[in-house]
Amino acid sequence: YGGRVTDAWDRRLVNTYLDTWYCDEAINTENFKLSSLATYYIPDDGPLQSYKDYIAQLPNFDAPEAFGQHGNADIASQIEDTVELLESILMMQPRVAGGGGATREELVDDMAKGLLEQVPAPLDLDAIIKAKMDDQSALHVVLFQEIERYNIMLGGVRRQLADLRKAVKGTVVMTAELEDVFICMFDGRIPASWLKGYPSLKPLAAWAADLVERVRQCSEWAEGTYPVIYNMGYFTFPTGFLTAVLQTSARKNSVSIDVLSWEFVVNTQDPKEITQYPKEGVYVGGMFLEGAGWDPELCCLQEPNPMELTLLMPVIQFKPTENKKKTGKGIYPCPVYYYPVRTGSRERPSYMITVDLKSGKAEADHWIKRGTALQLSLMT
Predict the structure, then answer these.
(1) d(Cα 353, Cα 333) in Å, to the nearest integer?
(2) How do beta strands 351-358 and 293-295 pair?
(3) In this protein, which residues make up the domain named Dynein heavy chain C-terminal (predicted)?
């Protein structure tokens, strides 16, 4: 079990378990319940054999409820194991086409042709900077930086696709890098060289469609004015965007950025009905809630429905504020992650920010055990 507690969120979970089990009630209450399941409790004091008998009747496989999780956690775990198994089987498949039909080269060439038509061309950054010269805000600096990163990525992807088509036809040499792209495309996976801009667990087709939407947000912002609702998951570095929002508010109110913190207001309107900018801060949409359900009437967390692993959250106003009060009872500090791998990597952490959500009928500890979090992108 070494190395399981790797960050502050793991520590928060461990402390929650300790607070639940190491308490006065565990000693003073007869057969103190250790979970919502009747199987798990502190047995009566007795001889050694009585404890052995109790342990023997425990199930061989613990249900998620034993640890305070929802039954959906078991489904999510099984889906993850299945995906890993199928990917392993796919990797072991022979790389030689057999029987009739199109060859691997023809299939990959058609995919490369389709992706070249789908993936946008790089944006004209110089023209965009010139058009935005009258409004040199911190948010526009973020826009320029995002476009610059996406242009590098788009240029590299389109160049590799064009070279791959030539290599398949034999007009250029099939390098090791192009061969890796070829194999990944045939398997429906994202080539590693295409993930330098931002991490993603999506399959190739879903990734390409998502990339189009990401570039569209930048393009529409560049051609028009500030978006009314930002999709924070479409930024390659959302933390830079959040810092720019704080800087904008600090300049507007003539205060130091150091005294500002975040207040979060969940909007009850349909995103299509939101047409005006908030008086302070920004509207953020496109986030997905994992490990809980959402009550739209009471604007709070609730138990999810069976098989409801994730759901699209309503638009949330990220509002910079001074002298914010400490988080009180009835509030769950919900971590926001860039993509489903919550640990991220050393170079690119997945954790972005903590959003305060109303915990509903349950206390915050209940959602901590559930691993409730917001995701900016999913696996599909």
Answers:
(1) 10
(2) unpaired
(3) 81-374
Q: Which of 138, 144, 142 is nearest to 125 (CA)?
A: 144
**Sign of dihedral through CA atoms 184, 188, 191, 192?**
negative
Query: Counting beta carbons within 10 angstroms of the beta carbon of residue 355, is it exposed (0 to 12), middle (13 to 18) or buried (19 or more)?
Result: buried
CA distance readout (Å), 51 to 21, 59, 149, 211, 296:
18, 15, 61, 57, 47
Helix (H, G, I), strand (E, B) or coil at 377: coil
d(CA 163, CA 180): 13
Query: Are 342 and 373 a contacting pair, CB within 8 Å?
Result: yes
Q: Average pLDDT for residues 12-34, to the nearest whole number?
A: 93
Instruction: Measure the CA–CA gap between 127 and 134, rounded to whole angstroms.
Output: 13
DSSP 375: E
Mean of the pLDDT values across residues 285-303?
A: 96
- Judge whether 246 and 263 are in contact, CB under 8 Å: no
DSSP-assigned states of every residue in 79-111: HHHHHHHHHHHHHTS-SS--SSS--HHHHHHHH
- Say whether 268 sits in a helix, a strand or coil: coil
Reported confidence tier of residue 91, pLDDT bands at 50, 70, 90: confident
356 φ, ψ (degrees, to nearest 5): -85, 120
- The alpha carbon dihedral of 243, 245, 247, 253 has a sign of negative
Residue type, 51: Y
Q: What domains appear along the chain, each with residue ranges and CATH number?
A: 8-68 (no CATH), 103-226 (1.20.1270), 230-380 (3.10.490.20)
